[in-house]
Amino acid sequence: MKNFESIFAAYILVWAIFFVYSITVARRLAEVREEVKALKAAVMGGSKEDGSTGLTTGSAGR
Amino acid sequence: MVSPPKIRWLETLLVALLLAVAGYAAFFLAPTERTMGAIQRIFYFHVPSAWTGFVAFFIVFVANIAYLLQRKPKWDWLAVSSAEVGLAFTTVVLVTGPIWAKPVWGVWWTWDARLTSTFVLWLLYVAYLLLRNLMVDPERRATISAVFGIFAFLDVPIVYMSIRWWRTQHPQPVIAGGEGSGLDAAMWRVFLVCLVALLGLMILLIRSRLDLEKLRYEVGELSYEIENRAAEVRVRGRGGAGR
Protein backbone atom coordinates (compact mmCIF):
# COMPACT_ATOMS: atom_id res chain seq x y z
CA MET A 1 0.00 0.00 0.00
CA LYS A 2 1.51 3.33 -1.11
CA ASN A 3 1.90 5.94 1.67
CA PHE A 4 1.19 3.27 4.25
CA GLU A 5 3.55 4.99 6.74
CA SER A 6 1.61 8.27 6.46
CA ILE A 7 -1.77 6.59 6.94
CA PHE A 8 -0.42 4.55 9.84
CA ALA A 9 1.13 7.66 11.46
CA ALA A 10 -2.16 9.57 11.06
CA TYR A 11 -4.19 6.79 12.67
CA ILE A 12 -1.72 6.35 15.53
CA LEU A 13 -1.78 10.11 16.19
CA VAL A 14 -5.60 10.22 16.12
CA TRP A 15 -5.84 7.51 18.77
CA ALA A 16 -2.95 8.99 20.75
CA ILE A 17 -4.66 12.41 20.96
CA PHE A 18 -7.95 10.89 22.14
CA PHE A 19 -6.19 8.49 24.50
CA VAL A 20 -4.01 11.18 26.11
CA TYR A 21 -7.01 13.50 26.47
CA SER A 22 -9.14 10.74 28.05
CA ILE A 23 -6.31 9.95 30.48
CA THR A 24 -5.95 13.61 31.50
CA VAL A 25 -9.71 13.87 32.14
CA ALA A 26 -9.68 10.61 34.16
CA ARG A 27 -6.66 11.77 36.18
CA ARG A 28 -8.22 15.16 36.95
CA LEU A 29 -11.48 13.41 37.93
CA ALA A 30 -9.60 11.12 40.33
CA GLU A 31 -7.78 14.09 41.90
CA VAL A 32 -10.96 16.11 42.41
CA ARG A 33 -12.79 13.04 43.80
CA GLU A 34 -10.02 12.70 46.38
CA GLU A 35 -10.29 16.40 47.18
CA VAL A 36 -14.08 16.10 47.67
CA LYS A 37 -13.55 13.08 49.92
CA ALA A 38 -11.01 14.94 52.05
CA LEU A 39 -13.19 18.07 52.29
CA LYS A 40 -16.25 16.01 53.23
CA ALA A 41 -14.22 14.30 55.95
CA ALA A 42 -13.07 17.73 57.20
CA VAL A 43 -16.66 19.04 57.24
CA MET A 44 -17.95 15.95 59.04
CA GLY A 45 -15.08 16.16 61.53
CA GLY A 46 -15.95 19.80 62.18
CA SER A 47 -19.63 18.89 62.67
CA LYS A 48 -18.76 16.31 65.34
CA GLU A 49 -16.48 18.75 67.18
CA ASP A 50 -18.81 21.75 67.29
CA GLY A 51 -22.04 19.76 67.44
CA SER A 52 -23.52 21.34 64.32
CA THR A 53 -25.73 19.33 61.97
CA GLY A 54 -23.47 19.11 58.94
CA LEU A 55 -23.58 20.80 55.55
CA THR A 56 -25.60 23.88 54.81
CA THR A 57 -26.75 24.69 51.29
CA GLY A 58 -26.85 27.75 49.10
CA SER A 59 -23.15 28.58 49.00
CA ALA A 60 -22.97 27.57 45.34
CA GLY A 61 -20.09 28.72 43.22
CA ARG A 62 -18.34 30.93 45.75
CA MET B 1 -27.79 13.14 37.04
CA VAL B 2 -24.92 10.64 36.95
CA SER B 3 -25.96 7.46 35.17
CA PRO B 4 -25.40 4.14 36.93
CA PRO B 5 -21.85 2.80 36.45
CA LYS B 6 -23.05 -0.34 34.65
CA ILE B 7 -24.85 1.67 31.93
CA ARG B 8 -21.81 3.92 31.56
CA TRP B 9 -19.57 0.91 31.18
CA LEU B 10 -21.86 -0.50 28.47
CA GLU B 11 -21.95 2.84 26.66
CA THR B 12 -18.14 3.07 26.75
CA LEU B 13 -17.91 -0.49 25.42
CA LEU B 14 -20.35 0.35 22.61
CA VAL B 15 -18.35 3.44 21.58
CA ALA B 16 -15.07 1.46 21.74
CA LEU B 17 -16.64 -1.18 19.51
CA LEU B 18 -17.89 1.48 17.09
CA LEU B 19 -14.42 3.06 16.94
CA ALA B 20 -12.85 -0.34 16.24
CA VAL B 21 -15.38 -0.99 13.44
CA ALA B 22 -14.75 2.52 12.06
CA GLY B 23 -10.97 1.97 12.05
CA TYR B 24 -11.33 -1.38 10.34
CA ALA B 25 -13.80 -0.02 7.77
CA ALA B 26 -11.61 2.99 6.94
CA PHE B 27 -8.54 0.81 6.48
CA PHE B 28 -9.96 -2.31 4.82
CA LEU B 29 -13.55 -1.83 3.64
CA ALA B 30 -13.49 1.62 2.01
CA PRO B 31 -12.57 1.50 -1.68
CA THR B 32 -9.25 3.05 -2.68
CA GLU B 33 -9.71 6.48 -4.23
CA ARG B 34 -8.69 6.63 -7.91
CA THR B 35 -6.47 9.73 -8.02
CA MET B 36 -5.05 10.05 -4.50
CA GLY B 37 -4.75 6.37 -3.69
CA ALA B 38 -4.59 4.96 -0.17
CA ILE B 39 -3.65 8.26 1.50
CA GLN B 40 -7.25 9.40 0.94
CA ARG B 41 -8.23 7.02 3.77
CA ILE B 42 -7.17 9.73 6.24
CA PHE B 43 -10.38 11.47 5.09
CA TYR B 44 -12.46 8.99 7.18
CA PHE B 45 -11.09 10.43 10.42
CA HIS B 46 -10.11 13.91 9.28
CA VAL B 47 -13.54 15.07 8.08
CA PRO B 48 -15.68 13.38 10.81
CA SER B 49 -13.31 14.87 13.43
CA ALA B 50 -13.87 18.32 11.92
CA TRP B 51 -17.66 17.87 11.93
CA THR B 52 -17.63 16.49 15.48
CA GLY B 53 -15.53 19.48 16.55
CA PHE B 54 -18.13 21.79 14.96
CA VAL B 55 -20.91 20.00 16.89
CA ALA B 56 -18.96 20.41 20.14
CA PHE B 57 -18.40 24.12 19.46
CA PHE B 58 -22.09 24.52 18.62
CA ILE B 59 -22.88 23.04 22.05
CA VAL B 60 -20.49 25.63 23.55
CA PHE B 61 -22.32 28.38 21.64
CA VAL B 62 -25.79 27.24 22.80
CA ALA B 63 -24.60 26.74 26.39
CA ASN B 64 -23.02 30.22 26.38
CA ILE B 65 -26.27 31.84 25.24
CA ALA B 66 -28.23 29.79 27.79
CA TYR B 67 -25.84 30.91 30.54
CA LEU B 68 -26.23 34.59 29.66
CA LEU B 69 -30.03 34.20 29.68
CA GLN B 70 -30.45 32.05 32.80
CA ARG B 71 -27.18 32.54 34.78
CA LYS B 72 -27.22 28.89 35.83
CA PRO B 73 -23.74 27.39 36.45
CA LYS B 74 -24.67 24.13 34.66
CA TRP B 75 -24.54 25.95 31.31
CA ASP B 76 -21.06 27.22 32.05
CA TRP B 77 -19.95 23.68 32.95
CA LEU B 78 -21.38 22.34 29.70
CA ALA B 79 -19.69 25.12 27.70
CA VAL B 80 -16.22 24.57 29.11
CA SER B 81 -16.54 20.79 28.83
CA SER B 82 -17.61 20.96 25.18
CA ALA B 83 -14.93 23.55 24.36
CA GLU B 84 -12.18 21.29 25.64
CA VAL B 85 -13.53 18.26 23.79
CA GLY B 86 -14.05 20.30 20.59
CA LEU B 87 -10.46 21.45 20.87
CA ALA B 88 -9.26 17.82 21.05
CA PHE B 89 -11.18 17.02 17.83
CA THR B 90 -9.87 20.15 16.08
CA THR B 91 -6.34 19.11 17.11
CA VAL B 92 -6.95 15.80 15.32
CA VAL B 93 -8.02 17.76 12.22
CA LEU B 94 -4.89 19.93 12.32
CA VAL B 95 -2.63 16.90 12.79
CA THR B 96 -4.15 14.59 10.16
CA GLY B 97 -4.49 17.34 7.53
CA PRO B 98 -0.75 17.93 7.05
CA ILE B 99 -0.04 14.16 7.03
CA TRP B 100 -2.44 13.91 4.08
CA ALA B 101 -1.14 17.13 2.47
CA LYS B 102 2.56 16.22 2.32
CA PRO B 103 2.27 13.33 -0.20
CA VAL B 104 -0.62 14.96 -2.10
CA TRP B 105 0.47 18.65 -2.25
CA GLY B 106 4.18 18.23 -1.56
CA VAL B 107 3.97 20.59 1.44
CA TRP B 108 2.81 20.02 5.01
CA TRP B 109 0.95 23.31 5.30
CA THR B 110 -0.21 26.25 3.25
CA TRP B 111 -1.91 29.41 4.49
CA ASP B 112 -5.09 29.04 2.42
CA ALA B 113 -8.51 30.11 3.69
CA ARG B 114 -9.58 26.70 5.02
CA LEU B 115 -6.37 25.87 6.81
CA THR B 116 -5.91 29.36 8.23
CA SER B 117 -9.50 29.67 9.47
CA THR B 118 -9.26 26.21 11.08
CA PHE B 119 -6.03 27.19 12.81
CA VAL B 120 -7.68 30.43 13.98
CA LEU B 121 -10.61 28.35 15.31
CA TRP B 122 -8.18 26.20 17.30
CA LEU B 123 -6.45 29.32 18.68
CA LEU B 124 -9.79 30.90 19.62
CA TYR B 125 -10.80 27.94 21.79
CA VAL B 126 -7.31 27.69 23.32
CA ALA B 127 -7.76 31.39 24.22
CA TYR B 128 -11.26 30.61 25.60
CA LEU B 129 -9.80 28.01 27.96
CA LEU B 130 -6.81 30.17 28.93
CA LEU B 131 -9.09 33.13 29.60
CA ARG B 132 -11.07 31.05 32.08
CA ASN B 133 -7.91 30.20 33.99
CA LEU B 134 -7.13 33.89 34.45
CA MET B 135 -10.32 34.61 36.39
CA VAL B 136 -11.04 33.44 39.92
CA ASP B 137 -14.61 34.67 40.50
CA PRO B 138 -16.90 31.97 38.99
CA GLU B 139 -19.69 34.35 37.93
CA ARG B 140 -17.32 36.81 36.27
CA ARG B 141 -15.45 33.92 34.61
CA ALA B 142 -18.68 32.38 33.29
CA THR B 143 -20.02 35.69 31.95
CA ILE B 144 -16.83 36.84 30.22
CA SER B 145 -16.10 33.40 28.76
CA ALA B 146 -19.73 33.10 27.55
CA VAL B 147 -19.37 36.36 25.61
CA PHE B 148 -15.99 35.24 24.24
CA GLY B 149 -17.41 31.78 23.38
CA ILE B 150 -20.23 33.31 21.33
CA PHE B 151 -17.67 35.43 19.46
CA ALA B 152 -15.37 32.41 18.91
CA PHE B 153 -18.21 30.40 17.35
CA LEU B 154 -18.47 32.96 14.52
CA ASP B 155 -15.38 31.30 13.01
CA VAL B 156 -17.16 27.92 12.61
CA PRO B 157 -19.35 28.99 9.63
CA ILE B 158 -16.30 30.74 8.15
CA VAL B 159 -14.30 27.48 8.33
CA TYR B 160 -17.21 25.53 6.82
CA MET B 161 -17.86 28.01 4.03
CA SER B 162 -14.22 28.92 3.29
CA ILE B 163 -13.85 26.31 0.53
CA ARG B 164 -17.13 27.50 -0.99
CA TRP B 165 -16.43 31.24 -0.76
CA TRP B 166 -12.77 31.29 -1.83
CA ARG B 167 -10.49 29.37 -4.17
CA THR B 168 -8.37 27.24 -1.87
CA GLN B 169 -5.68 24.64 -2.18
CA HIS B 170 -7.76 22.54 0.21
CA PRO B 171 -10.01 20.15 -1.80
CA GLN B 172 -13.45 21.42 -2.72
CA PRO B 173 -16.34 19.94 -0.71
CA VAL B 174 -17.27 16.35 -1.57
CA ILE B 175 -20.26 16.40 0.78
CA ALA B 176 -22.96 19.03 0.21
CA GLY B 177 -20.70 20.61 -2.38
CA GLY B 178 -23.24 21.03 -5.17
CA GLU B 179 -23.04 19.72 -8.71
CA GLY B 180 -20.19 17.32 -9.51
CA SER B 181 -19.44 16.62 -5.86
CA GLY B 182 -20.34 13.50 -3.93
CA LEU B 183 -19.05 10.26 -2.52
CA ASP B 184 -19.23 6.69 -3.74
CA ALA B 185 -21.95 4.77 -1.83
CA ALA B 186 -19.38 2.48 -0.14
CA MET B 187 -17.30 5.50 0.91
CA TRP B 188 -20.45 7.15 2.30
CA ARG B 189 -21.21 4.14 4.49
CA VAL B 190 -17.68 4.11 5.94
CA PHE B 191 -17.80 7.88 6.44
CA LEU B 192 -21.09 7.62 8.36
CA VAL B 193 -19.77 4.80 10.58
CA CYS B 194 -16.72 6.96 11.43
CA LEU B 195 -18.90 10.01 12.07
CA VAL B 196 -21.25 8.11 14.40
CA ALA B 197 -18.28 6.56 16.25
CA LEU B 198 -16.62 9.95 16.78
CA LEU B 199 -19.90 11.59 17.84
CA GLY B 200 -20.30 8.79 20.39
CA LEU B 201 -16.77 9.45 21.64
CA MET B 202 -17.54 13.16 21.84
CA ILE B 203 -20.61 12.51 24.02
CA LEU B 204 -18.64 10.24 26.37
CA LEU B 205 -15.81 12.77 26.68
CA ILE B 206 -18.13 15.73 27.28
CA ARG B 207 -19.99 13.77 29.95
CA SER B 208 -16.79 12.83 31.78
CA ARG B 209 -15.56 16.40 31.57
CA LEU B 210 -18.95 17.59 32.87
CA ASP B 211 -18.57 15.30 35.90
CA LEU B 212 -15.26 17.03 36.58
CA GLU B 213 -16.96 20.46 36.56
CA LYS B 214 -19.71 19.21 38.91
CA LEU B 215 -17.10 17.87 41.32
CA ARG B 216 -15.14 21.15 41.19
CA TYR B 217 -18.35 22.95 42.10
CA GLU B 218 -18.77 20.58 45.03
CA VAL B 219 -15.18 21.39 46.10
CA GLY B 220 -16.10 25.08 46.00
CA GLU B 221 -19.18 24.48 48.16
CA LEU B 222 -17.34 22.37 50.71
CA SER B 223 -14.43 24.83 50.92
CA TYR B 224 -16.94 27.63 51.51
CA GLU B 225 -18.56 25.57 54.24
CA ILE B 226 -15.21 24.97 55.95
CA GLU B 227 -14.29 28.67 55.69
CA ASN B 228 -17.64 29.60 57.27
CA ARG B 229 -17.11 27.18 60.12
CA ALA B 230 -13.57 28.47 60.70
CA ALA B 231 -14.91 32.05 60.80
CA GLU B 232 -17.60 30.98 63.31
CA VAL B 233 -14.97 29.37 65.52
CA ARG B 234 -12.84 32.55 65.35
CA VAL B 235 -15.82 34.72 66.31
CA ARG B 236 -16.72 32.38 69.20
CA GLY B 237 -13.09 32.39 70.34
CA ARG B 238 -13.01 36.20 70.38
CA GLY B 239 -16.33 36.28 72.27
CA GLY B 240 -14.94 33.88 74.85
CA ALA B 241 -11.73 35.87 75.27
CA GLY B 242 -13.67 39.12 75.75
CA ARG B 243 -15.68 37.76 78.68
Structure report:
The complex is a heterodimer of chains A (about 60) and B (about 240). Chain A has one helix at about 5-50. Chain A is rod-shaped, with a radius of gyration of 23 Å. Chain A contains one helix and no strands. Chain A has a domain at about 1-35. By secondary structure, chain B is an all-alpha fold. Chain B has one domain: Four Helix Bundle (Hemerythrin (Met), subunit A). The N and C termini of chain B lie far apart (about 50 Å). The model of chain B has no long low-confidence stretch (mean pLDDT about 90). The interface of A and B includes residues 4 and 9 of A.
Could you provide a short overview of the structure?
Chain A has 62 residues and is mainly α. Chain A is built from 1 helix and no strands.
Which range does the strand content of chain A fall in? under 5%
Low-confidence stretches of chain B: none
How does the helix and strand content of chain B classify structurally? Answer: mainly alpha
Radius of gyration of chain B: 23 Å
* CA-atom Rg of chain A in angstroms: 23 Å
The percentage helix of chain B is over 70%
Individual helix count of chain B: 7
Fold-level CATH name of chain B: Four Helix Bundle (Hemerythrin (Met), subunit A)
Which range does the strand content of chain B fall in? under 5%
Helix content of chain A: over 70%
Which CATH top level class of chain B fits? Mainly Alpha
CATH architecture of chain B: Up-down Bundle
Q: Helix count of chain A, per DSSP?
A: 1
Question: How many strand units of chain A?
Answer: 0
Low-confidence runs of at least 5 consecutive residues of chain A: 53-62
The main sheet of chain B comes to: none
